[in-house]
Design brief:
- With about 110 residues, this protein is an all-alpha fold.
- It has 5 helices and no strands.
- The two termini are about 15 Å apart.
Length: about 110
């Protein structure tokens, strides 16, 4: 899977997984791009942003599931270590330090 496609597929899943620790920045970004009214609570703003990202992916014609790019679900196991070692994973707001957590996220995107 090309990096950009993989990032696009994983973004909504990872945003929801990180939700509790990034709700304020998500809400700020949502307001910055004029999705909600400024008086809306952060939770609504953050949810609107994640929905907006999903809609954008759909409008761009991107397949939002890993299964459209990886033939067998058990192949996800092969990509765990490279993802765990990635600087992007290490910079995640929540610690992703084991294969179980990562595999769960990948299965959500399957």
């Amino acid at each position: 899977i090309p990096h950009g496609i993989a990032s696009a597929i994983m973004m909504p899943v990872v945003l929801r997984w990180n939700y509790d620790v990034i709700i304020t920045p998500l809400a700020r970004l949502s307001k910055e791009i004029s999705l909600p009214q400024s008086s809306d609570p952060d939770t609504k703003c953050a949810d609107l942003l994640i929905d907006h990202i999903n809609n954008l992916l759909e409008r761009l014609g991107l397949n939002k599931r890993l299964r459209n790019y990886i033939e067998q679900k058990d192949e996800l196991q092969k990509i765990l270590q490279p993802i765990l070692q990635s600087p992007c994973t290490k910079a995640n707001p929540r610690i992703v330090d084991n294969e179980t957590v990562l595999l769960n996220l990948l299965h959500q995107a399957w």
